[in-house]
Amino acid sequence: MDVQVVAKALHEAETEVLVLTVFEDELKQLDYLSVLDEQLGGRLARIIESGEIQGKYREFTILHVDGIGAKRLLIMGLGRRKDFSLDRIRSIAANSARYARRINVREMAIHDFSHLSVDPKDCAAALVEGVILGMYRFDKYKSKKKNAEKLLQKIKIVAGSEDAVPALEKSAHTGKTLADTTNFVRDLVNEPGNYMTPIIFAEQATEVANKHGMEIKVLGPDELKAEGMGLHLAVAQGSAEPPRLVIMKYEGNPGGKTIGIVGKGITFDTGGYDLKPSQAMLRMYGDMAGAAATLGALKAIAMEKLPVNVVALMPLAENMVSSNAYRPSDILTSMAGKTVEMMNTDAEGRLVMADSLTYIQKYYNPDVLIDIATLTGAVIIALGRTVSGVLTNDDDLYNRLYNAGEYTGERVWRLPLYEEFRSQLVSDVADIESVGGRSAGTITAAIFLKEFVDADRPWAHIDIAGTSMMEEEIARYVKNPYLPKEGGTGTGTRLLYHFAESFANS
User: Which of 18, 311, 371, 445 is the most exposed place for a label (fewest CB within 10 A)?
Assistant: First the structure.
């Protein structure tokens, strides 16, 4: 996707489609379109007066025009002014791009929202993100692909002045980086289990690290055993695919504070001996979405050269059934030395995460620690498919994650982490049970992870089980045009990037 910023009057912008926006409660306050409408002989005003254009959110009207630089106008409704947000810019851009693709248009332009006092550094990034994310398709394994030459190939952002161009160009560059890395994450998540094993994921991470100048270390079964990572190894032992632990380090602020991130990487999850029902197993190649988002965020951070330090761990394994697989009621020993009674082999994510949390603290001692995982189905019951759960011991971390979520549209909401939930994990035969029962499942999963985090270390757990994958029946009510109808969403990538950026700016 070619992205350009041009400083021109709207009627002078040469393009196949020029996207304009209107509010439903401000249809007669369109000063920014007045010069353009003069060139059209008042055509816009007449159509608005007739009621054909009402400005309702995502309503669109297409006009073929002559006498200006654009061949067509696409007028998109923004809804009511009080509901306007940065995310609506993303959504309108995505809708516009999808419409352009449908009519085989290869180029479109859109105004910079300067008449709405949108900060240029926010505006262009949101526009570009919306277009590129909205155009995403995963058709790698289709023998007949869409004709790429007929797809949208260029977007122009029409700046209100020359002075705005540098900020818009910088913002557009960041937006393209974040959209491209999010789509990279979507590709990783959408790969089926036979094409995305722990070894293949580690190879992808190595390629990213080498290309962008990051340190990387990959541990195999022998190294995991030497470190005493009994939980990680237990999850992997039922599979013919050997486990891996990917460790990547980005240094953008030598001597400064370090952010630690751990992302769950179960490349396929059968549930083990606590076998999932067949329908629930269909999308379980996406159980590595936390690791994928971690890798994508780190890639974006390196590409944008953020002045922060980040160390990221991605524990990788398959959770399979075989004569070697771990069993319910097994007692396992973690890297931290704590023994864990296995209450359900389908609660494997917290096991690989626990050992990685111990490892990252022992060897890297991060100042703040984040983990991200498709951890519990319970979070879907609590928060649905549009909001990820956050549990944390630190208010500042939550505020940073919340603000990053509101900014990116990857929204999060906090659940309690009260100490009394720990009683649900009391074991009669080990230090802790792996599962605390059906009640408060997301909370007790986080309480389990908290057992492996130093008491005085700022830490937050992000559960993306409800937001990492989209299915067609879910898409019908979510109706987010920059999310795919099916498959990986890339959730967590832009969230973690902007979380890291908040440290760079503090």
Answer: 311
